[in-house]
Structure formats: structure tokens, C-alpha cells
Design a protein that fits this description.
single chain, alpha/beta, Spore Coat Polysaccharide Biosynthesis Protein SpsA, Chain A, 2 domains, 15 helices
Length: 337
């Protein structure tokens, strides 16, 4: 890359945070460097990795001068994402994770869309889901909404709006709503989309421009229960803003545990609604049913919550090899009438 390209701001900043990501990092970096759109800087922030992630990133930085390494102690993903936003020099920022793979046309297509649609602040794409070995991974989920008009309906249906590592957004628009909020650890992206929905248009390109990896060690597998709670609370906060009331989560460092959400929002029924959503969302998660997600479902039943579908959850617990929990849930359902 000629030296004078470093003097001017690039058209695009690629923002990647890495923490102990050595297993998949090299192909992720290579997929960015192989983009047909070349006018970008590539910020790789190593968030205190204990493995060889930093060495891998430095290897590629020595090969391609568009890569800029940021290395420091571990501070967590939300802090890292906000730092990457602050240090990006381009008006557009493309998110990328250290375990996914961009298809070569991703940046070209997303930059072209934002250039042609100045009223849109965010554009994502559909994803091709793969497992840890790069094989097709069946999720059974719906594709993300495409046009901005579909997003309002998707919010009301509590659907996922965008695939975070597949988005490109306008830096100034994201900064105008305060960037990523600390309270929404593991679901910071969904909270951001809900806040952006009030100030800009969003879209997804109906093409699979990223290969999104699923494996046991990723955040969505290890923190499924916490993610679902955060997802539901973010929707409650969105409703507060839509009603013209202040968002009680905007300036807190962490969400309170279930049982304290009524106090946070200053009204009754928030805890109950979040538990009901949680009971539905975790019904198919082996990890959550084996962990604290099961306790939340039991509390939901014992408090008289909606029991639709929970007999099937009890049967699923047997299939998952948890007959004791299946018996406990069945007994609670019988007792609840």
C-alpha cells in the first residue's frame, strides 16, 4: 500500500475486537484483506488476549499497512467497541468479529448502498451460518428484515434486527446516540439497534455477505440466559423511549438481576414480562436449561405465568438427559393447575 494513502482518511474503518481468538483469527483477517473494496483502515484491538491473538494480528500488520493494532489490558467488549469507534478515522465503520468470514464483495456492496441511501445510517446483510469446521449450520431462524419499514414490525415481534459482525454504519450516527451502552453486556448490539431505530433508517442487503460461525465457546453459547434477559430489557427500554419517558438503563453499568426490574423501571409488571419472554426463549436451549435458565422458568411457573408450551419443555428436558429437572418442571406445572 503506498505511503501517501496513510495521510488521508480512508472511506471505511473496519473495527475488530479480539479476545483469545487465535483459533479463527487468521481466516477472519484474511477475508477482510481480500475485499474488492480496498480504501479502508483495519483496526484490530487486542483486548488483553492470553493466547497468540496479538502475535497473529501483528503478523498480518507487517504484511498490510492498512492494519492498525491496538493492544491493552482486558476491559471487555463494550469498552473495546466504543474505543474502536473513537479511534476510527473514516465516516463509515464496518464491524467484524474475529471468528467470522467476510465474502469478498461485502464492503463494496454496503458502501455502495450507504452512498446511494444517505437517509440510512446502518446496513447489514443476511448471513451464511457455519459451524466450527466451516460446515453448514442449521439454525431454523428467519432471515433478518430487509427494508426499513420491516424493522418496526420486527421490533414489535421481538426479532433479531441485524447480524452485528455483518453491519456497516455511519460513525457520526452511532456516536450521536451514545455508542454502545455498558449495561447491555452480551447484547449491546440489540440495544444499539433499538436506539438507532428512532434516529435513522436501517436495512439489510438480502444476500449472504458473511459466514457467521457457531461453536460452543462463543458468547452466544456461554451466556444465552443473560443475553435473553438483556434482549427483553432492551425492548422494555425502547418502549419507555417510545412513550416519551426516560430510559432507566441509559446510564447504569449493569442491569440489575431479575426481581429488581420493576424497581428500576418504576412500575409493576416488568419482571413478570421479562420472565415470560425468557421462558419462551430458553425452551430450546440445552445450555440454558442445564444452567440458571431452568431456575427462571421454574420461577415463572410458580408465579402463575403463562404455561403454554412448557409441557413440551419438560419433555425436551428428558431428551436432553435431564430427567430430574423434567420431573421438577412437570410437578410445578401440575401444581399450577
Amino acid at each position: 500500500m503506498p505511503a501517501d494513502t496513510q495521510a488521508k482518511a480512508p472511506a471505511l474503518s473496519v473495527a475488530m475486537s479480539v479476545y483469545d481468538g487465535e483459533r479463527f483469527l487468521a481466516p477472519a483477517i484474511e477475508s477482510v484483506l481480500a475485499q474488492t473494496f480496498e480504501d479502508f483502515e483495519f483496526l484490530i484491538l487486542d483486548d488483553g488476549s492470553r493466547d497468540s491473538s496479538l502475535a497473529i494480528a501483528r503478523h498480518y500488520a507487517a504484511i498490510d499497512s492498512r492494519i492498525r493494532i491496538i493492544s491493552r489490558e482486558n476491559r471487555g467488549l463494550v469498552t473495546s467497541l466504543n474505543q474502536l469507534l473513537a479511534e476510527s478515522r473514516a465516516p463509515l465503520v464496518a464491524r467484524m468479529d474475529a471468528d467470522d468470514i467476510c465474502l469478498p464483495e461485502r464492503f463494496a456492496r454496503q458502501v455502495a448502498f450507504l452512498d446511494a441511501n444517505p437517509d440510512h445510517g446502518v446496513v447489514g446483510s443476511w448471513s451464511e451460518d457455519i459451524d466450527e469446521f466451516g460446515r453448514p449450520f442449521a439454525t431454523g431462524g428467519r432471515d433478518h428484515p430487509v427494508e426499513n419499514a420491516e424493522f418496526a414490525r420486527a421490533i414489535l415481534e421481538d426479532r433479531n434486527l441485524l447480524c452485528h459482525p455483518a453491519v456497516t454504519y455511519r460513525r457520526d450516527v452511532v456516536l450521536s446516540v451514545g455508542g454502545y451502552h455498558r449495561a447491555y453486556r452480551h447484547v449491546e448490539d440489540h440495544d444499539l439497534w433499538l436506539r438507532l431505530a428512532s434516529v435513522t433508517k436501517m436495512a439489510n442487503l438480502p444476500m449472504r455477505l458473511i459466514r457467521y460461525r457457531h461453536y460452543a465457546g462463543q458468547v452466544s453459547s456461554r451466556h444465552a440466559t443473560e443475553q435473553q434477559i438483556g434482549h427483553s430489557v432492551a425492548l422494555m427500554a425502547w418502549r419507555e423511549r417510545q412513550a416519551g419517558r426516560p430510559d432507566p438503563t441509559a446510564h447504569i453499568d449493569a442491569l440489575p438481576p431479575l426481581g429488581q426490574l420493576d424497581a428500576l423501571f418504576g412500575r409493576d409488571g416488568v419482571d413478570r414480562e421479562v420472565r415470560a419472554r425468557l421462558a419462551r426463549a430458553l425452551a430450546f436451549s440445552r445450555t440454558s436449561l442445564a444452567g440458571d435458565g431452568f431456575d427462571h422458568i421454574m420461577t415463572h411457573v410458580q408465579e402463575g405465568g403463562d404455561r403454554v408450551g412448557l409441557w413440551r419443555t419438560a419433555a425436551r428436558l428428558v431428551t436432553f438427559g435431564m430427567p430430574g429437572r423434567a420431573a421438577r418442571l412437570a410437578a410445578a406445572l401440575v401444581h399450577a393447575g
